[in-house]
What we know:
Blueprint: E1 2-6, H1 21-26, E2 30-33, E3 41-42, E4 47-48, E5 54-63, E6 71-78, E7 86-88, H2 93-96, E8 100-105, E9 111-117, H3 121-130, E10 137-142, E11 148-155
Antiparallel strand pairs: 1-7, 1-11, 2-5, 3-4, 5-6, 8-9, 8-10, 10-11
Amino acid sequence: MNFKVQGLSAKPFKHLYGKSDEELQTLGIKRYVVDRDHGFPDRIEMRDANIGERMLLLNHMSMDKPSPYQASHAIFIREGAEQRFEAVNEIPLVMTSRMLSLRAFDQEGMIIDAGLATGDEIKTSIQKFFENKAVTHVDAHNAARGCYSGRVVRQC
Length: 156
């Protein structure tokens, strides 16, 4: 069973790049300059940002279907990120280096299955979820802070 991990599209965020801190604040967004390794996970490129890069912390609706499981939470995006991460049967380091809450959904946005995983367990859990034909995608969230990490979709 093949699957694809997807970062977010940069398109909905590009209008935020280069705005002043004051403009961002009126939108409920905070800019950070990365000052340490492993603490600023970009959701477009699916990587931890490097020291000195500028990040935007904002709210993102990860489940926008009319479902009891509609969800939004804080995410980081790298200011200037353009290239959306996509990889088949590959879990990026930004995900495997954290404990994740994995939530398997059907086409109506209802949870079919869920679990916690880290490291190599993530790929195994995702493959197990997709054995159920009703599962259309798996959303990953960082277990500790609850931030949206990424989406995994069934690859035909």
